[in-house]
Structure formats: C-alpha cells, structure tokens
C-alpha cells in the first residue's frame, strides 16, 4: 500500500508529560498493592486471586496516550476517531467527554465526504483497511496512527503472501475491525491477492475438506461468500495457502486450525511445502490466556472476567473460564446489582442478562475464593472498582 500522507507524531516530550498525568486515572493503588502481595487479597473469609497477567497491554496504553496527546496538541481542531480507540467503555467514554468526534467504519457515510485538510483523524489500535487509508490520504486530513505494532506485523506477513501468489487464510471474526483491515492488506499492492476468513474449527474443517478434494464447490462458495476476497475460486486459490490470524483469538484454537490446514495440504500434496504457518497471536493475548489457565488450576468458587463486551481477547478469556467453573463476564462494578443479582454478558446469546450470584460468594460467614482477570483493554481502576464493590456487598 502506497500512502501519501505521513501520520503526525503526537508523542512529543512537551505533550507526553501532561498526558502521563491524564492517563494516571487508569491506575489503581489497590491493584498495585495486591500484585505486590503475590496477586492475593484476603478480607475475612473472602480470598481474591488476581491472574498473574491481566489488564492494559503496551499497545493499548500507547493508543490511549496517542488519543490524549492528540487532544492536547490540537485543541482548536475537529478531531475524529475511527470507531473506538480500544474496546473498553470506560476509556471510550472519557475520550468522548474530551470532545472526540466519531467516524464509522463505512466510507459511504456522509461524514467522510465532509472531511477537509483541517481535520485530524485518529486511526485506532486495530488499524484501518487499505481503501479507508487511501481515502483519508486523498482528503488530505492530518492523520494520527495508533495501530498496534502486532497488527502491523500481521499485515506485513499477508502482504508478503500476496506478493508470492499465496492465499491468506485468516483465523478471525470477519466483522471485527482488525480482521477487516488484515483482509484488505492480504490483497497485496496490486489488489489481486486473495483471502478467506474462518472463525471456527468447523470453518477450518470445511476448508481442509475442500483442500483434500472432498468439498462441494457451490456449497463452499455459498458458505464463504461474505468472508472471502472477490472472485475467490477454491479450486485455484487453495492451492498454496498461508495461515495468519486476528491477534486476539484463542491461541489453542488457532493452533488446531493451523494443524488442520497443514495436514490437509500434506494429504493432497504428500508434503506441506505449499502451506505456510505464522503465529500472529500477540504476546499480551497469550500472556493473559496462559495466566488464566494457571489461575484455573487453583480451587476457585467463581471467576470474574472484567472488560468490554465487544473486546475479542476479553471474550475469549470468558469462554476459557466458563468451561471450568461459574464465570461472570462484566464490564464494570455497576453490573454487581446487589448481594443476589449480577448483570453479566451471556456468550451464547451475546447479550446482557441478570442472573443469580451463588449464595456462598456474598455470605460473610462462608469461606470463598474468587478469581479475577481482565482483558488487555481494561484499565486497573475498573478492576479496583469491581473488587471494592464485591467487598462492600459481602460485608453489607
């Protein structure tokens, strides 16, 4: 992708000193003290165990700092943010209060047509698609780039695939901002590259079956019509493939999908030369998943997952925990309604619902151990609020 509009560097020393004071609100002295005590906190018969890795990752911190710095550097300009800087309601609400305006992910929206060279546009941590970047360049807007470095690494990989005529198989959510951007980069410099986005092991099995010669062409095309490149022909474009993924997917699931695709190519060709694998799960996502698995080895009565409901990496944490013990996926302390009821996110219905808390969790006379973790876009102050609310309800 050739771009003619170099993003502005807003992380200037004279600005960042003030920004550090702005973002200090997301820290928590309580969380820091719990970490210093071995990630354990005891009050009466309630024990709270924090995962060894949770909350803000470096990429998220950088994106938030960039957003705050942009607001300080351009106080008299219209500042637009494409979508959300990250998937966390607490952070996004504070940025909205600072006057940030929002652009949707649909270029046909009239707000894009009204952009001028006086406007400042922040590209979010997930990045933007190639057509969107090219449009922004054509409008001459002042660009600020907060794209995560891990996402950029994936783009480089799929663009390299395209140069070599290799089709990208992307493990991700087809409507997620990051996967949309990655798919567009897999088209390559000439726009002739191809991709297919698969979400589940079932999708991977359908692709593997076709590679092995067991699929139905019409059924395959119909199934993946909305998650593959224009003109995608499974007979041509599954001959040589390269697997990549949205950086926030489940590591174990991505590994299984890679294995399925590689084995299918081996069965067809007698070797795996035309199957290229590259682990693009980001380190922070892996660390948080590994820390949760480690915590789940301890005897826990319940698990609380804190973060935005549209956060992919947080949703995967909730899924992992829900397979082992009672799990409550909440976005903030406000979800803890009282000693009996909690408003949490249901992974199956993809909606909030009010459910009952186990009596042992909130009865001060009963021994109870709660595990807590949070996605990479959740700030420590929100985790503190959840812990404080849990303690208050149990004592009240």
From the structure above, extract its key features.
396 residues, globular, four-stranded parallel sheet, Cobalt-precorrin-4 Transmethylase, domain 1, Rossmann fold, alpha/beta, 15 strands, five-stranded mixed sheet
Please describe what this structure looks like.
With 396 residues, the chain is an alpha/beta fold. The protein has three domains: 146 residues, 4-hydroxy-3-methylbut-2-enyl diphosphate reductase, catalytic domain (Cobalt-precorrin-4 Transmethylase, domain 1, 3-Layer(aba) Sandwich), CATH 3.40.1010; 91 residues, Rossmann fold (3-Layer(aba) Sandwich), CATH 3.40.50; 128 residues, 4-hydroxy-3-methylbut-2-enyl diphosphate reductase, catalytic domain (Cobalt-precorrin-4 Transmethylase, domain 1). It contains 16 helices and 15 strands. It has a five-stranded mixed sheet, with helices on both faces. α4 links the parallel β3 and β4. The mean pLDDT is 93.
């Amino acid at each position: 992708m050739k771009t003619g509009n170099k993003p502005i560097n807003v992380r200037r020393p004279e600005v960042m000193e003030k920004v550090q004071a702005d973002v200090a609100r997301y820290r928590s002295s309580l969380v820091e003290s719990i970490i210093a005590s071995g990630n354990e906190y005891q009050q009466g018969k309630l024990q709270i165990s924090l995962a060894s890795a949770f909350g803000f990752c470096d990429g998220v911190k950088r994106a938030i700092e960039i957003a705050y710095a942009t607001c300080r550097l351009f106080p008299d300009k219209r500042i637009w943010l494409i979508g959300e800087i990250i998937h966390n309601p607490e952070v996004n609400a504070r940025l909205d209060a600072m006057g940030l305006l929002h652009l949707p992910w649909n270029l046909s929206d009239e707000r894009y047509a009204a952009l001028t060279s006086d406007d400042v546009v922040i590209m979010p941590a997930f990045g933007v698609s190639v057509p969107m970047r090219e449009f922004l360049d054509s409008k001459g807007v002042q660009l600020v780039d907060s794209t995560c470095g891990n996402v950029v690494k994936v783009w480089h990989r799929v663009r390299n695939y395209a140069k070599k005529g290799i089709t990208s198989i992307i493990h991700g959510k087809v409507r997620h901002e990051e996967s949309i951007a990655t798919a567009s980069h897999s088209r390559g410099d000439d726009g002739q590259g191809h991709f297919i986005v698969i979400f589940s092991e079932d999708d991977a099995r359908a692709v593997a079956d076709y590679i092995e010669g067991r699929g139905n062409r019409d059924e395959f095309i119909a199934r993946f019509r909305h998650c593959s490149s224009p003109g995608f022909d499974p007979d041509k474009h599954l001959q040589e493939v390269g697997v990549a993924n949205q950086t926030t997917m489940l590591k174990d699931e991505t590994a299984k999908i890679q294995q399925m695709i590689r084995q299918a190519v081996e069965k067809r060709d007698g070797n795996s030369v035309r199957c290229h694998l590259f682990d693009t799960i980001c380190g922070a996502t892996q660390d948080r998943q590994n820390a949760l698995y480690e915590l789940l080895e301890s005897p826990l009565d319940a698990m609380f997952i804190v973060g935005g409901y549209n956060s992919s990496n947080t949703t995967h944490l909730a899924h992992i925990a829900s397979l082992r013990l009672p799990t409550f996926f909440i976005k903030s302390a406000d979800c803890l309604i009282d000693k009996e009821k909690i408003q949490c996110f249901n992974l199956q219905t993809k909606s909030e619902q009010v459910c009952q808390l186990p009596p042992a969790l909130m009865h001060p006379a009963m021994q109870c151990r709660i595990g807590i973790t949070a996605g990479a876009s959740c700030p420590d102050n929100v985790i503190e609020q959840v812990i404080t609310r849990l303690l208050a309800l149990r004592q009240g």
